[in-house]
Write a structure and sequence with these properties.
heterodimer; A: mainly alpha; two-stranded antiparallel sheet; two-stranded antiparallel ribbon; 18 helices; 61% helix; B: 240 residues; Four Helix Bundle (Hemerythrin (Met), subunit A); 8 helices; binds protoporphyrin IX containing FE; binds copper (II) ion
């Protein structure tokens, strides 16, 4: 017995479309989760390329000892912008692109809970990205590291002169602040969407695992970002209002005066956010591969429930390990021991996930398509990063690793070998759904192998360099250090990685033009998004589906006995609107009949889609203007008659106009 | 055989539940989207205030340790702030009445209670304004010492929350005066109420930690005596 609605021929009934659906204006005002997902994806990928170019400049600089391609300050700017771009402007929004596009489809919804809030999140993300990027044009790119350690971020003056007077750090602090608004708004939206908009029968424990990872990542964002918000407010107070939250002493021209401020407060607030942040970066990746591996192993996910608990455990423990970033700051043996233990503990649920992926593949009929290659790539490469992570979970070992290339190797294995591999896997996997075209498999496989080789040549030797003591964040190293050889290898690897992205872009361009039509379900997949046309219609589902199984599409195509682990779930009840009804009571009607009946009744307005709105864009613009005004208020930059504090005010007014316009316009 | 029901999903129009379509579709948890959103936001705001309060607690006695006045015990006027804290608590009561009257479709009463709540909010904010200027005249500014920095930041950001709440309530009042508020919009007032109560509760915590719990003595022996400090706990009584 089948459980989900068959895709309906679109001729039966069309929703009343009130707004134009093409053209620039339609994209600027869209509230459609699929379009917003595409916007997120394209913008974030652009930033991924920019961040990659920044990295390659650094690698050219380090290819030979005592190189002087760029100045030390430029180098500082490059590594700061590289890290900040990759984390906040590439990986997080790329994950967001998938949340947006895929989650409503997987839970059988027509949009997210708050479509305009969703558009707002995107425009605010653009605003934050612009603020950060414009720093290059002002020749004042942030130069203090993505972790922004105080007091490097402060305006200081000392016997040797002044430091940090320029606005480099302001671009960073206020840009991140804006990005935080975007992330929290988007995450609140996803928490509500997933909790509250599931189609009948999609119980929490029947949700695709990607929805679980989205839910838990969103909860992490909601609970972790306020810490950095506060950290950045305090930093901005220090820089604009003359407080000394992170400055222990000031120089009055002749004497050092103790202020009582504490630079370690920054580190605590930052890493209380920062460690959950690394899980914000990896959990969506875990979700993506947990979708892909079962499909291409032709088996349901091994240990679904345990996977869910593992994600939850990782997220929970993630709030209690931040001091492992501060082992060498001298907090003392007790905090170090406690946080060392909690850090090692977190490796357990992480290991569980690795074993479950292996268990899913075990005995399956594995098909090594491109998405599967990247997914398996994650399983192998992330594990290496996990192992080096557990190594420096031990304070004595970390004392050796800290601030060396070993840490760089660690986090690139988890971030590139983990997050980026999975995001690429996700693009290959959902590209057919999004565009209706298949990607070129042969190019895809070449892309994978070039990436895989380039990645390992680039990052594996960094372990050696780190253990030999090569420090991170340095623009150069001595000829006699003996580090020249591996650095040259690393730099050449980075060019292979660069090339891999060209192959990918070529594949995307080619497939967009000449890709074969994908059909609804090119991978013979298990989840709801594959039950509807590719690309999906604006309203996603002609009829809201009813779901009685964890893998609804397989259940429909192959019945309960479709494979091991496919226990009959007939006894599970369906919950509609918070009320549980037994399966027998669900109206059992042929969808075609039902639709025809409705057509007879002249009912073509049964699908209410939200109206387009440009107020989210206005509100985002307001935030952008007010922050730019603040950044240029000190040191004051008088541009003709344009007084910049006025710009802040104008920005705030614009923001309020956006918010009020939005509250008072009808949503649908 | 396939099945489908039109067990409606909010067709993305969550934000407007209750505005137009009375037949607004049910949600998975049976809770309104916006109410859930407010709860999730408040969870986030908890961490926001927790971080600020942790910062305040770190620097609470710093100025006394360094001997940089003016010291908190010379500045804080507990009876005054107790009164304004009482005003804020009272406003939670009027807020409950506003929500209740709209539930009973008593629009006139709703307007009165919304106005009363915003008025009490404004009284609280004026009290804060008075207190801030008072402290400033006694020599405490953001730059003076760590107490000044952390005190103004913490209470100032709380005050900002109150101000946003007042703006929100006044907007609701405005909407209701133009006839745009009825029983079916009760949820709009209810979530404003949730926010308002939260901001109140945070103030109780801030009031306790900033005003009531005694400070370490300054090195010169300034500051209050231990017994006197103990007596301060009585100020908590009206709120238990
Ligand atoms: C098994 C799980 C993991 C463990 C035990 C672990 C442990 C650690 C430790 C102890 C450090 C501090 C090293 C130092 O600075 O001396 C560190 C740094 C780092 N980790 Fe991990 N980690 C794990 C997983 C991850 C994941 C999943 C990510 C991101 C996706 C990640 C990203 C990072 C980053 C970005 C840094 C460097 C931060 C900086 O100083 O700039 N880690 N990790
Ligand atoms: Cu960490």
């Amino acid at each position: 017995m089948a459980t989900i609605a068959q895709p309906q021929p679109q001729t039966i009934a069309r929703p009343a479309v009130t707004t134009r659906s093409t053209g620039l204006w339609s994209w600027l005002t869209t509230v459609d989760h699929k379009r917003i997902g595409i916007l997120y994806g394209v913008t974030a990928f652009l930033y991924l390329l920019i961040g990659g170019l920044e990295a390659m400049v650094m690698r050219v600089q380090l290819a030979a000892p005592e190189n002087d391609l760029i100045s030390q300050n430029r180098y500082n700017e490059f590594f700061t912008m590289h890290g900040t771009t990759m984390i906040f402007l590439a990986i997080m929004p790329l994950s967001s692109a998938f949340f947006n596009y895929v989650v409503p489809l997987q839970i059988g919804a027509r949009d997210v809970a708050f479509p305009r809030l969703n558009a707002f999140s995107y425009w605010v993300f653009v605003a934050g990205g612009l603020i950060l990027s414009l720093s290059w044009l002002a020749n004042a790119a942030p130069n203090q590291g993505w972790y922004g350690y105080a007091p490097l971020t402060e305006r200081l003056s000392g016997a040797a002169g002044t430091y940090g007077i320029e606005r480099n750090v302001d671009f960073w602090a206020l840009g991140l602040q804006v990005l935080g608004v975007s992330s929290v708004a988007a995450s609140l939206n996803f928490v509500i969407t997933i909790l509250n908009m599931r189609a009948p029968g999609v119980t929490l424990m029947r949700m695709p695992i990607f929805c679980w990872s989205t839910l838990i990542t969103s909860i992490l964002i909601v609970l972790a970002f306020p810490a950095i918000t506060v950290a950045l407010i305090l930093l901005s107070m220090d820089r604009f209002a003359g407080t000394h939250f992170y400055i222990p002493s000031i120089w009055d021209g002749t004497n050092l005066i103790l202020t009582g401020g504490d630079p370690l407060l920054w580190q605590h607030l930052f890493w209380v956010f920062g460690h959950p942040e690394v899980y914000i970066l990896i959990l969506p990746a875990f979700g993506i591969v947990s979708e892909i591996i079962p499909v291409f192993s032709r088996k349901p996910l091994f240990g679904y429930a345990v996977m869910v608990y593992a994600i939850a455990a990782i997220a929970f423990l993630g709030f209690g390990v931040w001091v492992h970033h501060m082992f060498v700051t001298g907090l003392g043996p007790t905090p170090n021991a406690v946080f060392s233990a909690s850090t090692m503990l977190i490796a357990i649920p992480t290991g569980v996930k690795i074993f479950n992926w292996v268990g899913t593949m075990w005995g399956g009929q594995i098909k090594f398509t491109t998405p599967m290659l990247f997914a398996v790539g994650l399983v192998s490469q992330f594990t290496i990063g996990g192992i080096s992570g557990v190594m420096h979970a031990s304070p004595p070992i970390d004392t050796h690793h800290n601030d060396t290339y070993f840490v760089i190797a660690h986090f690139h294995y988890v971030l590139f070998g983990g997050s980026i591999f999975a995001l690429l896997a996700g693009i290959y996997y959902w590209f057919p759904k999004i565009t209706g075209k298949l990607m070129d498999e042969r190019l895809g496989k070449i892309h994978f192998w070039v990436t895989f080789v380039g990645f390992n040549v680039t990052f594996f030797p960094m372990h050696f360099l780190g253990l030999e003591g090569m420090p991170r964040r340095y623009a150069s190293y001595a000829a006699g250090s003996g580090w020249g050889f591996w650095n040259l290898i690393v730099s050449s690897g980075s060019f292979v990685l660069g090339a891999s992205f060209l192959i990918f872009l070529y594949n995307v361009a080619k497939s967009l033009q000449h890709g074969k039509p994908a059909g609804n379900d090119p991978w013979d997949a298990a989840t709801l998004e594959w039950s509807i046309p590719s690309p999906p219609p604006v309203y996603n589902f002609r009829e809201i589906p009813i779901v009685r199984h964890r893998d609804p599409l397989w259940e429909e195509k192959y019945g309960h006995a479709g494979g091991e682990g496919h226990q009959a779930e007939e006894s599970l009840d369906i919950s509609i609107a918070g009320k549980t009804i037994s399966v027998g009571e669900v109206p059992d009607e042929d969808p075609t009949e039902q639709a025809e009946r409705r057509l007879d009744a002249g009912d073509t307005h049964d699908i209410h889609m939200p109206n387009a709105s440009f107020y989210p864009l206005v509100a985002g613009l307001g935030l952008f203007l007010s922050m730019m005004g603040l950044i240029f208020s000190y040191p004051r930059l008088p541009i003709g008659a344009l007084d910049l504090p006025m710009l802040t005010l104008a920005g705030l007014v614009t923001f309020l106009v956006g918010i009020y316009g939005w509250s008072f316009e009808p949503a649908s | 055989m396939a099945q489908a029901v039109q067990a409606g999903q909010a067709s993305g129009a969550g934000h407007d539940a209750g505005h137009g379509h009375a037949d607004h579709p049910p949600t998975s948890l049976g809770l309104d989207h916006r109410k859930l959103l407010m709860w999730a936001f408040l969870a986030s705001d908890c961490v926001f205030f927790a971080s600020l309060i942790a910062t305040f607690m770190l620097y609470r006695n710093r100025s006394q340790q360094l001997g940089e006045g003016p010291f908190p015990s010379e500045l804080l006027d507990i009876p005054f702030t107790s009164v304004s804290a009482g005003v804020l608590l009272l406003s939670s009561f009027t807020m409950v009445l506003a929500v209740g009257s709209l539930g009973r479709n008593n629009i006139r009463a709703t307007r009165i209670w919304l106005a009363a709540t915003s008025f009490l909010g404004v009284v609280f904010l004026s009290g804060q304004y008075f207190e801030f200027t008072e402290f400033y005249h006694e020599g405490l500014s953001l730059q003076t010492n760590m107490f000044g920095a952390s005190f103004f930041t913490l209470t100032g950001l709380h005050g900002t929350h109150v101000a946003i709440g007042v703006l929100w309530l006044l907007t609701l009042l405005f909407v209701s005066l133009r006839g745009g508020l009825s029983e079916k919009d009760a949820i709009n007032v209810e979530i404003a109420g949730l926010y308002w109560h939260f901001v109140d509760i945070v103030w109780i915590i801030i009031f306790t930690l900033v005003y009531l719990i005694p400070y370490q003595d300054a090195p010169s022996g300034e500051g209050e005596q231990e017994t006197e400090a103990f007596v301060r706990l009585w100020h908590l009584l009206p709120f238990v």
